[in-house]
Amino acid sequence: MRYELIPFPDPSALAHAAAQSWMDTIERACVQGQPQCVALSGGRIALQFFGAVVENAKKRTVSLAGVHFFWADERCVPPSDPESNFGLAEKRLLQPLQIPSKQIHRLHGENLPDLAAREGAADVRRVVPVNSAGQPIFDIVFLGMGEDGHVASLFPEISVESIDSADVYQPVTGSKPPPQRITLTYRAISAAREVWVLASGPGKAEALRSCLVAGSQKPLARVLGMRRQTRIFTDIHPGSSGLGK
Model pTM greater than 0.90? Predict the structure, then answer.
């Protein structure tokens, strides 16, 4: 199996477990003197996840001095807009933990999408090591999952050309408002050392079930198929969706 399905009774338990696992990872990296490059996502579960991370980091006095923060996707809005993924992380994670600006690498959603994608890719390449194919090797890419199985801003209706793109980021027009977005590509996500999917919320049981079926073309299924292993933290109960059957 190309994924590890980790079940939880509710979103709070999911968020706290993922936060604890991440802080464990950061502590190990600190001991080894290794920096960490992560890509964050937005969504409803991110709100609880960020809160759990802040609580866990402060309780354990974990140092995040070696962590660089990037984004898996961004909506084409100013950072002050309520729809901004960066804005959510800034308010709920970065400011409470007093992360220095030199460790924050936001996507400039207020710029033209093509320009924002190019600038974001250049920023990634300045900090994140790359593999032999030229793709950045993030330590962890955090992803949510939508009701249609989309991850980051990779929607089911994305073109074949976009699926095969060798770019780091690409502009996309999504099926959810706001439609103009910037997203990590499939290849950039699949190159990460680890991908953690936080799959949470009502109405997503069928989407998750279909993503775990062999041969599925859903966005999450494509990510799973391109990687050797992906961790899926979920509060979606197997009995309601046929998961694990």
Answer: yes
Query: Which has the closest alpha carbon to 236: 97, 45, 75, 82?
Result: 45
Tell me how far apart the alpha carbons of residues 4 and 107 are, in angstroms, rounded to a whole number.
Answer: 30
Pairing relation of β-strands 180-184 and 169-173? antiparallel
As a whole number of Å, the CA-based R_g of the chain is 17
DSSP per residue, 65-96: TTEEEEESEEESS-TTSTT-HHHHHIIIIITT
Tens of pLDDT, residues 39-65: 999 999 999 999 999 999 999 999 999
Q: Which is it for strands 230-234 and 194-199: parallel, antiparallel or unpaired?
A: parallel
Q: Is the peptide bond prior to 178 cis by the omega test (within 30 degrees of 0)?
A: yes
CA distance 150 to 147: 7
**Beta-carbon-side half-sphere exposure of residue 88 (alpha carbons within 13 Å):** 21
Handedness of CA 7, 229, 129, 186 (dihedral sign): negative
